[in-house]
Amino acid sequence: MIISKLIMEITNLLSIIFETKWFTTLLVAFLAAWFTQRLNNNFTKKREKDNKRTETLKNFYYKIIPDIYDYFSIETDFRKGHDLKIHVRSRDVKKRIFDLISNNTIYVNYRILSKHRKVMSNKYFDDFSGFQKEVAEIELFCTVIEEYIDILKNSESADIKLEYQYACLFKIWKLAIFYCGNYGVAYSAISKNFYFDSNKLNKETLKKLKKLDSYQIGSEEHKIQFKRILENLTSTENIEIEEKNRFIDDFFNPMYEVNDSHAIAVFNNIDVDFGSLTVDLRIKYRDLILNELYNKKYYEGNSSKYSFNYTNEEFELLHNELKNAINYLKEKELVKLEADEQSIKLIITSKGEDIYEEKFLLDEYS
Q: How many domains are there within the chain?
């Protein structure tokens, strides 16, 4: 009885308080202050988030994205040696990309950092696959583009059509390297990406390419699904059916038969790793290096598109055929290496000039 009476008295007291004008005013003021504070906090957080987004775009993505697109265009250019300006080197662009990531870690997330770390750590380990280094680099570039898309896709004014195109192309390039079993061989396929319908290199295609990760790469199902994507992407307006089939087959050609087109690709891209060459191509490959060195010395700025200037790290990372060719020419005293603490320069010797002039200009062999 006592407890019940106490409860009733408290209830009556609260009822009286709630009905008083001063309490209602106080309650409204309290709720208004709480709501205003909550609203201000939300606005502050949104403003900080927007400022962070703007700063990240300005200081990182707006700088690195154009370089990534340029790297793809240079490295997969179908007419290397013709369309590109003299001394344009994809490795210079690639180094700039790596430096941008290393110097702007505050603007990148864990996905980019982990991919970047994988690229950097590859220099310490042997690559028994022969293409792991290149695949890791492509995965890094694609990840940067995907993160860029995630930032922009919520903006109504952002046009990210181009970003989807390049994200698709990088993923296709990576798969081409795997199925061809060689970075240089995959070039013959990806360099003809102009056969793709650019309008189909879109968000939906990117989803399909990402979905391939659910299959075991190299499995029959993975191969079938990848081939379907390529068939859907390839335009039939400016290409015959037979040519289309040959183009798609290039993405699945692990045993690349050396032919004229292969030789042309090799001789237009001596700094690209096409794997082991035939003896005949290897001889011509050495001659080409001598030719380029001669042109560089006597026709500076007009003929040779290779600088033959390397940092110590770049020289160590030269592919096997190029490094062996340089060593062979060096042993024959046709070239020499000038090195300092930071760089290595390849130069033709007077003996090399004599051989070039006899062999290439007079068509005579000593």
A: 1
* φ, ψ at 197 (rounded to 5°): -80, 110
Q: For residue range 163-196, what is the model confidence (pLDDT) as tens digits?
A: 999 999 999 999 999 988 878 778 888 999 999 9
Query: What is the distance of C-alpha 309 from the center of its chain?
Result: 23
Q: Is the distance from CB of 105 to CB of 126 less than 8 angstroms? A: no
308 and 346 in contact (C-beta within 8 Å)? yes
C-beta atoms surrounding 66 within 10 Å = 11
Beta-bridge partner residues of 310: 344
Question: Rounded CA gap, 141 and 231, in Å?
Answer: 25
Q: Which amino acid is at 95?
A: K
Dist. CA 188–CA 242, nearest whole Å: 17
Q: Which domain does 341 fall in, by range? A: 276-366
- Measured CA to CA, the distance from residue 362 to residue 128 in angstroms comes to 44
Q: What pTM did the predictor assign?
A: 0.65
DSSP for 14-67, written as a single string: HHHHHHSHHHHHHHHHHHHHHHHHHHHHHHHHHHHHHHHHHHHIIIIIHHHHHH
Amino acid identity, residue 203? K
Residue reference for tokens 């775009």 = 57
For residue 8, is it within any domain? no
Task: Please say whether the dihedral angle defined by the alpha carbons of residues 139, 141, 147 and 149, taken in this order, is positive or negative.
Answer: negative
Beta carbons of 179 and 223 less than 8 angstroms apart? yes
Q: Is 281 a domain residue?
A: yes
Residue 288 belongs to a domain with what CATH number?
1.10.10
User: Does a structural domain hold residue 23?
Assistant: no
3-state secondary structure 242-310: HHHHHHHHHHHCCCCCCCHHHHHHHHHCCCCCCCCCCHHHHHHHHHHHHHHHHHHHHCCCCCCCCCCEE
Looking at the domain assignment, is residue 324 inside a domain?
Answer: yes
Question: Per residue in 190-213, pLDDT tens?
Answer: 999 999 999 999 999 999 999 998
Per DSSP, the three-state class of 344 is: strand
Largest CA distance in the chain: 125
